[in-house]
Amino acid sequence: MPVVVGERLTLEDVVAVACGEPVLLSADARERMRASRRVIDDKVEAGETVYGVTTGLGSLANVRLAPEEVRRLQLGLLRSHAVGTGPFLGEWEARAMLLLRAQVLALGHSGVRPLIVERVVEFLNQDILPLVPEQGSLGASGDLAPLAHLALPLVGEGEVSFRGERMPGWAALERAGLAPIELEPKEGLSLVNGTQGMLAVGLLAAARGRALCRAVDVSAAMTMEAVLASDGPFDERLHRLRPHPGQAASASNLRRLLAASAIVASHRDSPHLVQDGYSLRCAPQVHGAFRDVLAFAVGVMEIELGAVSDNPVVLPETGEVLSGGNFHGQPIANALDALAAATVSLASISERRVYRSLDPATNNGLPAFLVERSGMNSGLMILQYTAAALVSESKTLAHPAGTDSIPSSAGQEDHVSMGMTAARHARDCIANAEKVVGIEALVAAQGIDLRAPLSPAPGTAAALAAVRRVIPFLEEDRALAPDLEAAVQLVASGALVEAVQEVVGPLD
Q1: Which of 62, 253, 259, 276 is the most buried (most CB within 10 A)?
Q2: Nearest-angstrom CA–CA distance, 109 and 242
């Protein structure tokens, strides 16, 4: 079903459009935009002073523009602000940005014509995706540079990917049978003001985080069987006494994943296995903390999905145009900084379980590095190095971007959010964590196989089978890079969790 722009959007809607779902513009949104456009036209005709419409921008807000300069300002804004650098955002991030840009304009407080949003919708439906460099945004006045790159193809400039082929914006318009838009007063400003860059990247990272929090419960349960850990710490009575929602959900998953495990039952009454290490025993507490921070970040961003982050803002009901600071990205920056930090803890505890699985001092009887004839064979030793490197990198990425601010625009914009940086770092921390969890699943699968003839639980057996469909048991040293890539894909694609859910039902 098409996603409707101008109505309430959810994280699931953004993911659907990012993955190619078509888009429609609601009739109510068209009426809202027409009403706010009339306000702008009336003020331009009356010669009133309106920031960014009949004046310059930033520290040039006190410069009054002549009528003939008003329209030239809008195109100049896109050109002068499109100074991003670095690698381009991914195609699904560009699609999410287009959707969010259309949505905020369709709320009817920006003063743009319906034509602008109709064209953005056309871009999505015809797969015309602007090439947007991911570096260069301060996060106030919103994501100026990324949004300028996003908007330039509307006027026939900039670069795009058109159905997978890179080309100039004008060439894509010609192929799609579209004419470049000539911007009216306020429209260029409305196209570059807002938080839609950081919001798009952050929402898609959060969607991956939702999948990750289930995958890490699966990989942890596999490790617990591999190293003969106890399922006692996941007793529901314990978790009712500390009722954080994420902790309860993770503990519930672990109970279900380990239910009916012959491996767990084999040592339940052993006097030598009284208390496991924290990376095993405290998995619900750490995994759950990630879940709770993720829920907070999603909540902040879903508010932003329905918010007006333009400036100035048009109030059609009173005919006013108000200048404010709704473009400031601090709420999103803080939420995504928190998500990045929580993701590091998730990856870190997963890496600690990998280490524990490989060390004969802590893996309860398995061979060193989970391979026979260790010494001649290095086994899975270096996978832990890779996991450790990924966690270390994520620790540097998790330095909170939102605590920094560098004044700009001759001091007019003297506090900025760095929200786009926070979003990119959260995304990259999630990507690193997917790799670490993939490594844990790969290592744990080897450990479970070495416990034969004891059988794993139905849930973890399904996970083991999913791993073994793409990664064979390690008899002796071989090139492990393809195995690592396959394991990461199992996590990132959702295939590992899907295989488990077919057996135990939906995980929390």
Answers
A1: 253
A2: 45
- Cα separation, 139 vs 135, whole angstroms: 11
pLDDT at 409 over 90: no
Beta-carbon-side half-sphere exposure of residue 16 (alpha carbons within 13 Å): 13
- Type of residue found at 433: A
CB 131 within 8 A of CB 38: no
Flag the least confident range among 42-51, 149-158, 227-236, 483-492: 42-51
Cα first-last separation, the chain: 26
The yes-or-no verdict on residue 52 having pLDDT over 80 is: no
Taken in order 149, 155, 158, 159, is the CA torsion positive or negative? positive
- 279-333: pLDDT as tens digits: 999 999 999 999 999 999 999 999 999 999 999 999 999 999 999 999 999 999 9
Q: For the segment 232-258, what is each residue's pLDDT rounded down to a tens digit?
A: 999 999 999 999 999 999 999 999 999
405 pLDDT above the threshold of 70? yes
Q: What is the pLDDT of residue 275?
A: 82
Please report the domains of the chain, with CATH numbers, ordered by start residue: 3-194 (1.10.275.10), 202-308+335-405+417-504 (1.20.200.10)
Rg (CA), the chain: 26
Cβ neighbours, 10 Å, residue 110: 29
Query: What's the rounded Cα separation, in Å, for the pair 68 and 441?
Result: 64
User: Pick from 503, 358, 359: which is nearest to 444 by CA?
Assistant: 358
Neighbours of 10 (CB within 10 A): 14
Name the packing angle between helices 144-151 and 196-226 (round to 10°). Answer: 110
CA 31 to chain centre: 33
Q: Which single residue is written with the structure tokens 């488990």?
A: 500
213 touches 431 (CB < 8 A): no
Residue type, 222: M
Mean pLDDT of the chain: 95
51 is catalytic: yes
The answer to whether 450 and 370 are in contact (CB under 8 A) is: yes
Share of the chain above pLDDT 90, in %: 88
What residues does 313 pair with on adjacent strands?
322
Per the residue annotation, which of 51, 278, 355, 385 is the catalytic one? 51
Q: State how far the Cα of 247 lies from the Cα of 386, in Å rounded to an integer.
A: 28
